[in-house]
Write a structure and sequence with these properties.
The structure holds 2 protein chains of 2 kinds. By secondary structure, chain A is mainly beta. Helix content of chain A is 0%, strand content 46%. In chain A, strand 5 and strand 6 form a beta hairpin. Chain A is globular, with a radius of gyration of 13 Å. In chain A, 41% of the residues are buried. Helices cover 0% and strands 49% of the residues of chain B. Chain B is built from no helices and 11 strands. The termini of chain B are far apart. Classes of the chains: A mainly beta, B mainly beta. At the A-B interface, strand 4 of A face strand 4, strand 5 and strand 10 of B.
């Protein structure tokens, strides 16, 4: 399985942007980049995913490097509710049934 | 918004007892999953299930574990003879489609299993 590397933790102030990096230097040409997060005492929650192009949704933006060896999840204005563990996960088509969670990045948001 | 529901939220059992963890996936979803998270550790995949069959399982999912979709709405995980090391949070998830381009898994809040 292709692996990802994320910082253990990041801190942010409320209403400021948060940039969460993920390195995946061994990514294959067909791997999708998925992001999930896990709020305290809750199950994981889908955030966003992409293949080659940058993606935006109501929760976040995903910027993918041109060589696809890294990506960045951007929370545009962090709120206290965004404090969570964020996981960057590579998924191998066509049918990769499982999500392979690593340790993720623990994001702390200061009021 | 549709959600995955899991019951009970906390299950306490004695070592060696059988437990059944229950999940109601989102109604139009066809693919179902169980994961577990031991306290302080990573979320680990256990099994995926589609069309009344196991699609994939991990090494953790040994003969002590089984899954079933007994009716059109429930999805269960049974642990036949619980061990102390089965103590964990168990998450159920479901997805509408399988193709990676569109596969989004929706998770329940989990069942905390405590084996004494």
């Amino acid at each position: 399985d292709a692996k990802t590397t994320q910082p253990n933790s990041m801190e942010s102030n409320e209403e400021e942007p948060v940039h969460l990096p993920c390195n995946h230097s061994t990514i294959s040409g067909t791997d999708y980049i998925h992001w999930y997060r896990q709020l305290p005492s809750q199950g994981p929650e889908y955030v966003i995913h992409g293949l080659t192009s940058n993606v935006n949704n109501r929760m976040a933006s995903l910027e993918i490097a041109e060589d696809r060896k890294s990506s960045t999840l951007i929370l545009h204005r962090a709120t206290l509710r965004d404090a969570a563990v964020y996981y960057c996960i590579l998924r191998d088509p066509p049918n990769d049934y499982k999500l392979s969670f690593g340790a993720g990045t623990t994001v702390t948001v200061r009021a | 918004e549709p959600e995955v529901t899991q019951t009970p939220s906390h299950q306490v059992t004695q070592m060696g007892q059988e437990v059944i963890l229950r999940c109601v996936p989102i109604s139009n979803h066809l693919y179902f999953y169980w994961y577990r998270q031991i306290l302080g550790q990573k979320v680990e995949f256990l099994v995926s299930f589609y069309n009344n069959e196991i699609s994939e399982k991990s090494e953790i999912f040994d003969d002590q574990f089984s899954v079933e979709r007994p009716d059109g709405s429930n999805f269960t995980l049974k642990i036949r003879s619980t061990k102390l090391e089965d103590s964990a949070m168990y998450f159920c998830a479901s997805s509408e489609v399988l193709q990676i381009a569109k596969n989004i898994q929706y998770f329940g809040a989990g069942t905390r299993l405590s084996v004494l």
